[in-house]
User: Fold these one by one.
Assistant:
Number 1:
Amino acid sequence: MTKQPTIGESLRSQGISRREFMKFCTTAASLMAISPALIPQLAKALENTPRQSVIWLSFQECTGCTESLTRSHAPNLESLIFNTISLDYHHTLQAASGEAAELARAEAMKANNGKYLLVVDGSIPLANPGYSTIAGMSNKDILLEVAQGAKAVIAVGTCAAFGGLPKAAPNPTGAVAVQDLITDKPIVNVPGCPPIPIVISSVIAHYVTFGVLPQLDGLKRPLSFFGQNIHDRCYRRPFYERGWFAESFDDEGAKQGWCLYKLGCKGPVTYNACAIFKWNDAVSFPIEAGHGCLGCSEPDFWDAGGFYQALSVPLTGTATAVSYAMVGGAALGVVGGLLNRQKKSEAKQHHEVVSIADLKRT
Amino acid sequence: MNYTEFLLWVRGPAFHFATAILVLGLTLRFLEMLFLGSPRQYAAVRSNGIAGGIRTVISRFAPPEPGVFQRSWFIIVAGYLFHLGFFISFFLFAPHIILLKSLLGVSWPGLPAPVINIITIISLFAMITLLINRWYYPVLRFLSDFEDYLSWTLAFLPLFTGYLAFHHIWLPYPLMLALHILSVEILMIVLPFTKLIHTFTFIIARWTNGARAAQKGVQV
């Protein structure tokens, strides 16, 4: 196998100037909350590191995550990042198909054993291996096989990170997340439906530069992107504070850009960077477009009580519980009341008649 | 269980359970009270008692006689601040109104969040001073039992966790929100079986006392 070119060589061969490269390093450092003092180290690492081998597996997914990454404006950080890696296997993007594609995967795994990054989008069906297969292999088998030689795993999209839509009740395929099957490798979750492109590329850049995964939160998400929730960074927050809410999607409040809490916005419980980085080259994000946040970077967002139900509203089932409770309470109340009466009546019957003579002092 | 699952659990099964226990408990207690019946009236009643009932319901919002306020002004003022604060923050905070609308079908305007914030702080402060007062005075301390401290804790926690959740202090918001809802659910479960039931019975009790008193005596 030929020697992999370094990232610097690869970028120069594509006509990317030193100035553009340093600009990229500065932006990447800023995005990942890395100290400016480390920018030269970032540049040096990217310059001299061989292109990182990446194997990308797609399971039960909609290709939205790949679309998110590839459909962003060019030239941009994402395209630059993609130039810094060697994407050795990706169903949707690779030219090869059939046996040639699988051969490319096998070769990359062999050549970079223990060093390649495994990126996964989509959940893994366990109910029946036939629900989703690649070249005759079940998703579970191919994941376990490829993960064995991977240095780290990046679960891209909510399906890979938490099970996502395929796992939504009643979970007909028995879908699970990557972290449910892989427990012996470092995993970073980059959830979102789809995730913000810059988050995916920055995690890869961080790994390429420092050789370790970025700092993660309790759900294994990069803290620099998932450390704050949408509500705290939302430009509509002042309207929430004032108590000014849109009551429907076409009322005066909606036209005035008031808070969408009553329309089911899940911003307060959603940790993501949408309100900061936005989408389509930082043009807008769902709340700015007039729709509440769906909470797509959180586990089980699909079953979190309805997209258009306000966060403070309980999940359905209260009325049934109340009906049973009233019947039960009424039955117990009647029984309890009658028993109390009986007790009172018995106590009355056992009253001893006391005369004035009994009360005399002896 | 991650915090999202915990939040869904408190918004779903736990809330249904707590509501069921609250409704069951209240129905049970009210029926028990109903079965106690009224004491037999041996003399002709003076009036139907309605006016007396209403009068007592209102009059007992004020200290009963001159001098009581001067003697116990602190408990009365702090008690009022806590009760009013709890009432306002519960009934006039927008997310709570949405919750109540989903359960009762009726809605009303709320107050801006900063106003609720100040009221909650006053309410919390009043509760803390009332607890200190309870410890400070030996007689009050002697009269206090487990149920008193339990009632204080169960009333304090929803306000406290609500305040922390609103300001995103200490824990991630979804987790603090879940703890806030859970604290209310514990309150709902315990309420019918402790002195906290006065939330529902204070008007009935005042009415009954006032109406019965008004029925007694000589007609003029």
Number 2:
Amino acid sequence: MSTGRRAPRLLAATALVGVLLPWGMSGAAVAEDETAPPPGPAFGYSATAWAAPVHVEVFEPSLPIPATPQLEFMMAYSKVKADSGSSSGRASWFWPGDPVGEGLKTFGEQLGLPPQLFAKGYPVQVNAAYPSDEQEAKDEPFPGMVMRASAGENQATGSTGFTPDGSVEEQEGKADNPLTALLGGLGLDKLAPTAKAAPSIPGMPAGLGALIDFNGYVSTSSSKVVDGSVKVSSRSLLGDVSLLGGLVRLSGVKAVATSASDGEKPTADSKNTYGEMSVLGQEFTIGPEGIEAVGKKQGIPGLSANPAKALEQLGITITVPKQERTVEGRKSTVVSRGLTVEIKTDLLKPILSALPLGKLAELVPDQAGPLKSVLAGLGSLAPRVVITLGEARSTLETVPLMPPPTTPTDDPTDTGATPEDTTPADTSGPAPDAPSAPEAPSADVPQSETASDLPPSEAVSAGLPKLFSIPGMFTVGAIALAVAAGSWFRRAGALALGAGGACTHGLDSGLPDLRKV
Amino acid sequence: MTVPMLEAIGIHAAYGRIEVLRGVDLTIPRGAVMALLGPNGAGKSTFVKVISGQKEATAGDLHLGGVHVRNASSDALARVGLCTVPEGRSVFPNLTVEENLRLMSYAGVPADAVMETAFRYFPRLLERRRQLAGTMSGGEQQMLAMSRALASDPALLLLDELSMGLAPLIVEELYDTVREIAETGVTILCIEQFARTALRVSDYAAVMTGGRIVATGEPEEIMESMADVILGAA
């Protein structure tokens, strides 16, 4: 029998089964309805959030790295990814960007480095993944420096940073401005009474201290499912910052990005908090409108009184980026950045030329030719450096599940069930600030009716007529007729358009069955 | 002369304004194992996407079994026997091995037959049948992904970066199974960055760089000239 003849029969049989199935399955549907709802949200979701208090990007197209920016690193990078079935958390106090962090092996091979250096991947990170890997991971490479990650069925977190007591997670009920906590509450102010005396971060490459230095930073990213809603957020905090050896000082930047959804309405929220800034001792405040001078205006010798121009003379452009909060359909995206500092490269030249690049290049073995040439050429590069202080991003997208069928129950006492009654027994109610849980499916009977003396009523819906009733038989007959007519019209249309039916080897798609040719 | 299983002539494909494939010519004889090698970013995975209908070619001709199929839909190609094991495996992490395999029965293959094939090629999956796929090792997940592909009774199997993230011993084991599969008459295209193992089981090999095939031949010839070809063209 050819597939051409078989297809209409198959279609008709499928249609018939499709029509009869709802009648046959009604009993099963009632049984399924009595089972408890799953603990997770009643929708599918995919969420990502990451944060980094310091994000340095170097744009130099002449570097042989197939990525833009060509070099980047982040201090205190935390990231979570979660979806309906899995989750992961990552924390790294020094993250060299995804191209290097994820693909160190490829970079190592391309640069000709010894395999021992990169065989185990990028080392400065902890990762947790559910269900495929360890669900808790942590490391404390230096006193006060922590990296923690966790992942579970309904939550994932990544947190990292440098504080005196290793407290990097967000703490409920703390001061509204966590910078206060970071600088004062945690004791950093006692350890480092002045920004000048603040030590560099342990482990930070020494050369970077001339470019940027800071004395405390944390970042936390988390994803949680609570009361049927999903919330994904990231937060970065930065204490005192010193740029270009102290020419520019900042007293704190915080950025928070939060996306949440109850499956229907996503929300996007962000918040930035800034401390004070000084350029060669002249203080400025930073706000959404930009940078303004504060206190007694005292001109900086040789510099313009206008802060933007003064910074420009120093080769620095500081901008306050606009917060991006986007809600499109079921997707929420938040990009929260505290400050963007762009540094002109001519200020970097003395730093680069002071490094013994030639000697370093000589130490590199000949097998690592590309690395050797990169090192030797560093002094002549003119990169554009962009430093983002306080960066947090979150994205959340949900997809609806097919709604479960609403079927009447046999027990008349069940008809008065309220949405609260149908939620899982162990829920203790939503937190005061948490979005309310979506209503669980219940019988379509208004509560006021069930309280009266009326007899138990059946759910009212369009429904299907009984199979062996006259309307039911008419419905089945009409569908069978439509299937036959549809199949005939399809074939007639294909012939009219010159398709000529299936090819020699038989599939209706017109493609040969590769198993038979 | 028999019709080749796959014949690509001057295939071009682009992501937006960036052209990734710049005239790929490749022929795979029926029942052969072809290794397609090349560095990162050469366009190998994009070529697989074009063959399997996941990405439209902007120019060129693609023939499967002698029939022009350029830009045929991926589901139509899957029905006629083309199957892809994608890079990164893509198993369902929180379903068990058995549940992952059972999903293939929705495509019309009886669940028992799917299991039987999977456990015949990969006995280790039988031991892990009730384990969540996400908790298995990378090699075992790759075995599961290959088992799902085999369940569709493929005539042309595209294996994208089979060795990615796996220990060398596991990769050897997987490629031994690839050879076994090929001996049943299945045509196989292996996309690989790490050439040695793939070449060991291949009948033919091709090297792709910069969106073009720059060398084709017997595995031994390719092995000898590959470093020059890749480094010279990069």
